[in-house]
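Standup notes
- HV: blocked on the assembly model, inputs below
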Amino acid sequence: MRQSDYDENLILGYVENTLSQDEKAIFEQLLVDDPELADLVNMLRQDRLLLCEMDQVTAPMELSEYVSSQLERELLLGPLPYKKTAKYPDRSTPQSRGQFRIMRFCAYGSLAAMFLVVVALMYHDTANQTLMDRVAKLDFNHKQTRESVVAMNRSSDDTLDIEALAATPILPKIQNNAVTASPSVTSSFQKVPPQSQTPSLAFMERDEMELQETTAESFRVDTDAIALQTETLIANNISADPIPPVITHRDLKAMSPTTAMLAGESAPTSFGTSAMLDQASADQVTSISSAPSARKDKTLIEGKSFQVAKAKEALGIPPEAHLMLGKKIATAKSFPNASAINSPLAVRVTRRALTAMRPKNDTQQSLNQQNAVCLIQSPNPDHTVVQINQWAIRNRVEIVPIPKPTPHKTEQRKPLHASNTQLRQVVTLNIQTKQIPVLIQWLNEHPKQQNSWLQPLPQSNAANNSLQRLQQELPLAPTLRLNPPNQKSQIQLMIIPSPLPPPSIKP
Amino acid sequence: MASVEEDKLAELAAQGNHKALAQLLERLEDRVYGVCYRMTHHPEDALDLAQQTMLKVIQNIGKFEGHASIGTWVYRIATNESISHLRKQKVRKAASLDQNVLSAQSDGRSASLGTTIIDHREQTPDQHVQKKEAKQILRKAMTQLDEEHRAVLVLRDTQGLDYQQVAQVLDLPMGTVKSRLFRARLALREKILELEGSITNDQPTSERKVTS
């Protein structure tokens, strides 16, 4: 019988002499029957006896000294710091060296895996770049464009004139921070392709806020706006009150030189009525804008005078006023030498006030006669400018940059007067002919603002019905030119504040 | 009786009594060194392991809760330290005195102090010599056992712990301890037979050496 056939606990008990007497007797009987098992058990007992008889080992003195020193140290220095054995790899054996190699391979492998993950993530980000990401990337350039647009809108052509006017003693200093827009910004705007102006809603909202903030910071003086506003006011007053108002010299100081000159030269600015106010203002501005070329403008004024006369006839206004206005405006070049006209509608302005003005710098010259000009009367011109800029960007219409004006070093500038805070702003759009109806429609969608086209609109020769329909809706666009649909033309949008309500008339 | 005194000393030492701790360590150091030596069969390694064990006892005596005897607790620390050391040095060929003796006998080369001692003791009666040789072979066989088998044999036979104490030291169930002890004895027997067989094969050479 083999050893495995017996209970190992029984054999172990017999070897270690832990069996009871009965168990021991039974097991000894088994040993008699199985000599091999008996030999094995005897050998195991001998081995155990040898192990038990192994010499008792006594600890060397070093151990006692070490224990004593450690105890003394603990007694003197307090609790012993827990000594952590260094876990440096043991490289003394081939196995340990192999383990070290394995660990090294694992470390290198983990580093390589991390590198691959990083590369994969970078590739993934690049490959899955969305359109919004690309638009966001264009955000910087676009922002520059918008800023440059704002700056350029403020530094319009007539800024030179405005600066010159601001240098005059009667006008306060102009805050023309926007005028000093760096050429780099303008150049960056010109370099930006139209595709980069892809609009997004969030982008537009943000830019609108920026534009509002910027315009609030630097509100620029625009004497033309004051002039036109004053003229409109005068027209309103005249239409409401048959007695012409008398503008004093003090009031004239608050106006632009243009207004003062108009008042001094051709006081009868009273052809506006409630029915034909827009048209009258348009005619007036048209006449004013044609001041540099008197001959041409004279013809234009004569062409317009028929309509104006019709309107005045319907309203009961004597035609002499209009004729007088046309006559005087036709000689606008001689503003400084003009004299006041004795008219019941004339505004009395002293010569002293007139000589303090600079008629050459009248901002009416800034309106390009070859371009279509739309006079927009808005209760909030700044907001309207922002909206126009947004619309231009949204429809990929180029906003014409305005060259940097030359500074006037010799002239002193005075701070702005509080009454000159409502100004005109001009936005020049380089727009395709086929996009003009869209612009007109968009402009007409704003009920609070009044749009008056001062110059003929270019028309597409593609039989654009919508343009014709819009032309019917827009009677103030007198003539239309035929241009190819893709031909670009410039349209100047001149935004001025809405006229103040007429003063109440006491009977 | 001694165990009860050691437990009292351990209780005092856990409360911060350095004198009790010194007495306790003085009582335990021989047993600690014995376990380490029987486990490693290397005096220097045994000393290092004993020092580490004593240091751990000093550091952690405050954590001793008295669930087992202090002797069992210290045995456990020493055994674990020894097993860890043996596992680290498992393949290392420690040049011990016994190895030199056996290798010299197997290789037929006489060398070192061990051979000289054996030669001197062979002049004693045969039984005594056989017993000494058996012990040498037993030591050699012990060094070739696994750490777990070696630990259970050392704790049970050389240190005289009972099954329960061995189970506490090794943190094993009682049945596992018995089974492991039986298998350790069988493994030791096989190692001894292997060593005796190798020596028997080389016996003429060694006899020539002894007679010469």
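- HV (later): unblocked. The longest helix of chain B spans residues 174-201. Confidence is low (pLDDT under 50) at residues 97-122, 205-212 of chain B.
- Next: hand off to the docking folks.
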